[in-house]
Structures are given as structure tokens and as C-alpha cells.
Amino acid sequence: MSTYGRPPVQEAVIDLRLQGTLNATSLEKITKRCIARYPHQQALNTVEVALDASGSEGMRVVHSRDGWRLSSDDEADVFMLQPSAVVTARLAPYQNWDRLTENLFLNYRAWKQAGGSKIVARLGVRFINRIDIPFDGERIELRDFMNIYPHGSDYSPHPMTGYSLEVRRPTRNAPWHSTLRSADVTPSPLLGHRSFLLDIDIFRENLGADETALSDQLAVARDLKNEIFEASVTDQSRALFGL
Questions:
Q1: How many CB atoms neighbour CB 9 within 10 A?
Q2: Who contacts 46 (Cβ-Cβ below 8 Å, separation ≥6)?
Q3: Which of 42, 144, 156, 216, CA to CA, is 20 to 30 A from 123?
Q4: How many helices (H) and strands (E) does the chain have?
């Protein structure tokens, strides 16, 4: 992705799936180790209700802890901690790739220090972008702004009121696969605009335990997601981002 003055990124995520799991006690140790960077800490719990068909025991409610959601003072930097996953995210305003990956490695090392597996079974990188187009009531031709858009039979004189689409395909780099999604955002969070999502999700499996290899593959992921982004938008969109 080019350097934009107003990047459209709403959420940037790096998702490490590790072999093996950590128990609740180990996860809690990680939260304490990370409290300086992530002072807002919320336990993620699941509640299951089981009904005894015989009626002898009635209803049983089982509570279980699935992980933690940690966030920074401004709640823009997020660490999702799960028994077999380290998920590092940045919400808008997006800063830069280096800051995102720096946080990822700090979180991954905290995981390993707590006894978690070093082996990365799956690496995913996801960038959710929102393209806000000024709207004065006239019809917007989405193809003027994006190269991924719905196309169907012209069976109605009325403009489209909503859409959602998804494309899945391997990337040019064989181990990496992609899912590209686009949808309208209704209503737009900005007055006088129409807004559309461009959601880029790429992943690969079987990375091993070497941090240098992980860093190298993150660089590959960055190039791929930038390539997909630039192939998906037009110059009219780029002008909105403040190129």
C-alpha cells in the first residue's frame, strides 16, 4: 500500500495460531505481564446451558473462560489472548506496519515465556478498510472507486440499496491464500457519504518456530496485502486517501 495521508484502515490484525494450548492460569500470567502496555483487560467467558432430558437434574449452567481481550489506554491497540492463539490488532487511526509487528512480537514472546508452544501452525493477516465516498444524493458508480463490485442484470430502474460479496483464491505466492470481501456500510458513519468495506484476509500454514522465518513471512504478507489493496481500488479512491 502506498503511503496515504488518510489511510482507510479501520482494523489491522495479525493472527498467530499456535500448536498446543495454554491453560487459564498461564493465560492470566500473560495478562499480568502485559498490563503496562494493555491496562484494559477483559476476560472472555462462555456460558453453556445443559438440560437434563430425564428431568432429574434440571438445568445446568457451565461457565468457562475462553481467553482475554487486552487493550491500550486509548483502546486502539488490542491483544486477543486465547488458549491456542495470539491475535494482535490496531484499530483506527492506523499507525504503521512496523508498530503493528513490534506489538505482535512482544505478545508472541510473552506467550512463549508463559510456556506456550513456539510453533506457528497458521499465520493470518487481515486489513479491514472503509472507503467513504462523498454523496450528494446522486447515484454512485462503485466501479469508479473499486475494482471489486457487484454486477447483475439490470432488472430495476432503482439504485442498489445494499450488497455483500466474497472472493477466495490463492495468491501469486503459493503458500498464501486470500479472501477478499466487499460490502456496503449502511448507514454510513459519515454524514453526506456512502461507505463501503474492502476486507483483505490472507493466510498460510506451517511456519515452524523460528522468529526470523516469521519476520520474513510477515514481510511477504505485507507485500501481498498491499498488492491486493492496490489492485482493488482506483485512482478516484486513492485521491480520497490523500495520496
A1: 23
A2: 63, 64, 65, 66
A3: 42
A4: 4, 9
Q: What's the pTM value of the predicted model, to 2 decimals?
A: 0.89
C-alpha cell at 99: 508498530
The three cell numbers locating residue 10? 479501520
How does DSSP classify residue 142? Answer: G
Question: Which of 63, 66, 92, 102 is closest to 81 using CA atoms?
Answer: 66
Q: Please tell me what DSSP assigns to residue 5.
A: S
What distance in Å separates the CA atoms of residue 205 and residue 115, rounded to the nearest whole number? 22
Contacting residues for 132 by C-beta, under 8 A, at least 6 apart:
8, 188, 190, 193, 194, 195, 240
Q: Which residue has the higher pLDDT, 127 or 137?
A: 127
Contact status, residue 213 vs residue 207, Cβ threshold 8 Å: yes
